[in-house]
Amino acid sequence: MPRTEPIKAARGVHDILPADLPLWRAAESAARETATSFGYEEIVTPLIEQAELIERIGEDTDAVSKELYRFERRGSQNLALRPEATAGVVRAYFENGLNQGPKPTRLYLIGPMFRYDKPQQGRYRQFFQFNVEAIGGASPAFDAETVELAQRWLNAVELTELRLELNSIGDEKCRPAYLEKLKAYYRPLKSKLHGECQLRLERNPLRLLDCKVPQCQPFKAKAPRITDNLCDECAEHWAAVQRLLDAASIEYRHNPYLVRGLDYYTRTVFEFYPARASGQQDALASGGRYDGLAEAEGWPSTPAVGFAGGLDRVTELMAASGREVPVSPAAEVLVVPEGELAIAAAEVARICRTARSVAVDYEPRSLAAKMRSANKVGAKWVILLSEDDASRRVARLRDMSSGEQSEVAWQELPTQLA
Ligand code: HAM
Predict the structure, then answer these.
(1) What mean pLDDT comes out for the span 96-105?
(2) Mind listing the pLDDT tens digit for each residue in 365-374?
């Protein structure tokens, strides 16, 4: 059935066009180079996972409860598109025996994630992350290492005006008692909180602290702080992470309200923001320690820490800060045949490709129109080909910057272009 309207992209996703890609490639290469320079190896895991694995991130996590793309049941498995990579990387680490290797195993992953989020600037339903995970390391040195790696990466793409927020949210030993204190503090205020926070109060009270709704703000300042309620081990870890960051001259701000939107974190949590922006949706990179996730997935208890950077947000900020990456022309050489010379033009292109990138203008239009298009494409050379040229296996090679033109035998073209 013909439709009246052309079909557009799904809501909340976006195309990355050739003109945008140099910035994306720059951000990705910086990610790979930085991760490699810290001894991290790349891993690729599937975009689909068993829904049950994703649910282990935490039932109260928005990415699971509200934003997960689930498939209709197929065969015996419930599947979902991954909303984040950490659960899958941990699964892959154990399932493929990487846990038998060196400790920690340092892994990084670049790829798309999917969340049924409210679409807005910097918040997409398909977005790309650069994930870094150090699995099997309990030392606070790994927390500091991943923070430093995140900062190095952002600096490598010339994002230097950053604000790093840091907090500790304790562990399964000290957090329950703290949550009771938090609930006790908020219960008398319940009616003054906005609807979702009223629900959070009993279900997931930690999230009360990162609520952005104005009516909930006045109560935060007097709320008990988790960093005043840590057990000895968590307090020691928290102090050590700060000492390590100080020693690395990494500036941070303790944000006692930073709790993160995913439920698997223990102890250290951190987020990098552009220095001038505020608000959670602007985080460029965020992460923390997740010592309980492996066990929640059914594997042996294993400490781990990591972060993920948002490539969409990072490239948007790179573009907004006027970062320019030299754009090379799609093809350095454009073969411009006159009339119906597709076979000869394709052969000339084949010969020249040994030396340069080559495209052919096959469109049946005037030479003037073809030359205008060659200028737009930014080709450095144009090879003009008439029927007479083709019969003698020669062409006219034009240097587009000098305007010089000379007749060259086809076989000589690669040497002339080299
Ligand atoms: P997250 O904070 O949910 O953490 O996401 C990490 C980063 O991905 C964010 O800081 C942001 O830059 C980007 N991001 C998140 N949602 C969107 C969206 N809808 N559109 C565009 N960008 C987005 C995690 O995913 C954890 N797995 C990070 C981690 C790794 N923790 C430990 N290891």
Answers:
(1) 94
(2) 888 888 888 8
Q: Which of ligand 1's atoms lies nearest the C-alpha of 84?
A: 25
In angstroms, the CA 60 to CA 181 distance is: 20
- DSSP string covering 165-224: EEEE---TTTHHHHHHHHHHHHGGGGGGS-HHHHHHHHH-GGGGGG---GGGGGGTTTSP
The Cβ of residue 312 has, within 10 Å, a number of other Cβ atoms equal to 20
Ligand 1, from 113, 124, 268: best to mutate by most atoms within 8 Å of Cβ?
Answer: 113
Closest approach atom of ligand 1 to CA 131 = 30
From CA 260, how far away is CA 271, in angstroms rounded? 9
N-terminal to C-terminal alpha carbon distance within the chain: 52
At residue 4, does pLDDT exceed 90?
Answer: no
Tokens 């990072």, residue?
314
Task: Tell me which of 43, 45, 84, 142 to substitute to probe ligand 1's pocket, judged by most ligand atoms within 8 Å of the beta carbon.
Answer: 84
List b or e across 360-399, with b for residues whose CB sees 16 or more CB atoms inside 10 angstroms.
bbeeeeeeeebbeebeebebbbbbbbbeebbeeebbebbe
pTM, to two decimals: 0.91
Question: Cβ atoms within 10 A of the Cβ of 19, count?
Answer: 8
Mean pLDDT of all residues in the chain? 93
Number of other CB atoms surrounding residue 181 within 10 Å: 16
Beta bridge partners of 396: 384, 407
Decide whether any atom of ligand 1 lies within 6 Å of the 130 Cβ.
no
Mapping DSSP to helix (H, G, I), strand (E, B) and coil, where does residue 369 land? helix
Q: Is 313's C-beta closer than 6 angstroms to any atom of ligand 1?
A: yes
Cis peptide, bond prior to residue 329, ω within 30 of zero: no
Across the beta sheet with 268-274, what order do the strands follow?
41-42, 105-114, 126-135, 304-310, 285-289, 268-274, 162-168, 253-254
Contact 293, 263 (CB under 8 A): no
Element spanning 87, H or E: helix 86-95
Q: Is the C-beta atom of 310 inside 6 A of ligand 1?
A: yes
288 touches 265 (CB < 8 A): yes
Among 76-90, 327-341, 366-380, which range has the highest average pLDDT? 76-90
Neighbours of 99 (CB within 10 A): 17
